[in-house]
Design brief:
The protein is of the alpha/beta class and 508 residues long. It contains 18 helices and 24 strands. A six-stranded mixed beta sheet has the order 6-9-10-3-11-12, with helices on both faces. The chain has a six-stranded mixed beta sheet with strand order 18-21-22-15-23-24, sandwiched between helices. A hairpin with a 2-residue loop joins strand 23 and strand 24 (475-481). Residues 2-237, 254-498 form the ABC transporter domain.
Length: 508
């Protein structure tokens, strides 16, 4: 169906794809995997015509295609479901599906014909969507199914899915996989871009690996394993399933008492949330993105106003204090977006590593900065946290996502304190950096610090947390000890499938 050979793509001085290869057979699910920045999404955007190919050959159904645009790709039967959905919130599901390709009856849109066509696809592939609802009234999983049907109504025989499970619960992921298998049985060819190796092993027929813009190789699913794939991705053994260190809970370092906070949208308003974190333990917050996790963390760290309730750090009320005063009280914070709140990208590694302590000894005496001590400190942290390259004077703008995140983690962990709030600490980083950051969080816990971990990655929550709190639409829907939790019961709670923890008599 598809053959991409010797593909090259650069954006200025950045070589996104240096030597890309990819083939797709009729009726197969072919996964494309690699670290962040490996070039996998760029390869598929080149296939879909979103970027022009600099060098290389593209063949579709055996035909050489010298240049391609999204219009040509659609005409050739290629559809793409992007990580960020391309839907209009104010329009209905049906209107979104036919947008730009509306069937006509004279000068008016033939909605009856459109509905019949779409209902055929819903029935044929086992999809569950409500055509009359607006996009802002449906779930993320349903929105994704809308995107898939959009590609089918445009005649797609090849469907590219970019990180399709990133925002789904385990139950929604299983539902998606049933749909993908139905599409494959009908002869559709699917490209599945992902970094979740267990899912790749479950859904794929073949798997191709890219590393640093280069094609590394392709394997049949039956001939490989998650550990082999991880090794292909980063060039060495990786150990993500590390043994959890035993928690030794001490005194409460964080108490959130009946907190109410405004939200960016209705479902993210915080409504009467209470939780606590103790010394020497990791408490994980699980939930689908956008259900109030960000607002809760902003309230705890002083970045958002608390409307009602209180937040206590080490027994002292910090409700609505400034972030600086809260930090002084012993809180460290790895923010969910390193670029907007974790780093000043125009500044050096050294400057970012000492940013919180720049006005204090030994880095500053009076009005004089001690550049020698700053440099030595930055060199030491770069070594301990394996920040590459080792030159602390270079700009963080030149760092990969994983190394940029290590700068944030190194700074926040090194200042010590009572509580570390780690929000999406491994989001957007490669497997090697994930392994490193998870080890660091375990070490922080073993040294007696309390850790509040917020992650959209359920595997991360399950592998690191000693206790787990689940949020849905700004409320806590469940509290579980680590040994009680699994993807199924967490997934149900993430969808609001059980009542508030207090009604269930759950463990606090």
């Amino acid at each position: 169906m598809i053959e991409m050979k010797d593909i090259v793509k650069s954006f200025g001085n950045v070589h996104a794809v240096k030597s890309g290869q990819f083939t797709l057979k009729k009726g197969e699910i072919h996964s494309l995997i690699g670290e962040n920045g490996a070039g996998k999404s760029t390869m598929m955007k080149l296939l879909y015509g979103m970027y022009p190919i600099d060098e290389g050959n593209l063949r579709i159904h055996g035909e050489n295609i010298p240049s391609i645009t999204p219009k040509i790709a659609i005409e050739k039967g290629i559809g793409m479901v992007h990580q960020e959905f391309m839907l209009v919130n104010e329009l209905t599901v049906l209107e979104n599906i036919i947008l730009g390709f509306e069937p006509r009856h004279g000068i008016t849109i033939d909605f009856d014909k459109a509905r019949k066509t779409v209902e055929q696809y819903i029935s044929q592939y086992g999809m569950d969507i409500q055509l009359g609802k607006r996009i802002n009234q449906i779930s993320v999983g349903e929105a994704q199914r809308v995107e898939i049907i959009k590609t089918l109504t445009r005649g797609a025989n090849v469907i590219i899915l970019d990180e399709p499970t990133a925002v789904l619960t385990p139950q929604e992921t299983r539902q998606l996989f049933v749909i993908l298998q139905n599409l494959r049985k009908d002869g559709k060819s699917l490209v599945f871009i992902s970094h979740k190796l267990n899912e790749v092993m479950e859904i794929s027929d073949r798997i191709s690996v890219m590393r640093q813009g280069n094609y590394i190789g392709s394997v049949n699913k039956e001939e490989t394993s998650p550990s082999e794939l991880a090794k292909m991705m980063i060039g060495r053994e990786v150990f993500l399933n590390m043994e959890k260190t035993q928690a030794k809970p001490g005194e409460k370092v964080l108490e959130v008492k009946d907190v109410w906070v405004s939200g960016e949208k209705e479902i993210s308003k915080i409504r009467g949330v209470s939780l606590d974190v103790r010394e020497g333990e990791i408490v994980g917050i699980a939930g689908i993105d956008g259900n109030g996790q960000s607002e809760l963390i902003e309230a705890i760290t002083g970045l958002r106003q608390v409307e009602k309730g209180s937040v206590l750090l080490d027994g002292k009320d910090i409700t609505n204090l400034s972030p600086k005063k809260i930090r002084k009280g012993g809180l460290s914070h790895i923010p969910e977006d390193r670029n907007t709140r974790g780093l000043n990208r125009s500044m050096s590694i050294k400057e970012n590593l000492i940013a919180v302590s720049v006005s204090e000894p030994p880095f500053c005496r009076g009005l004089v900065q001690n550049q020698k001590d700053m440099l030595e400190y930055a060199k030491k942290l770069s070594e301990v946290f394996d920040i590459r390259p080792r030159d602390p004077e270079i700009s963080t703008q030149s760092l990969s996502g994983g190394n940029a995140q290590k700068v944030v983690v190194a700074r926040e962990v090194s200042i010590g304190g009572k509580l570390l709030v780690a929000s999406q600490p491994t989001r957007g980083v490669d497997i090697g950096a994930i392994e490193s950051i998870r080890k660091i969080l375990q070490e922080v816990k073993s040294k007696g610090m309390g850790v509040l971990l917020i992650s959209a990655d359920l595997e991360e929550i399950l592998s690191l947390s000693d206790r787990i709190v689940v949020m849905h639409e700004g409320r806590i829907t469940g509290r579980l000890k680590a040994e009680e939790a699994n993807e199924d019961n967490l997934g149900l709670l993430m969808m609001g499938g059980a009542g508030p923890a207090e009604e269930r008599g759950s463990t606090t």
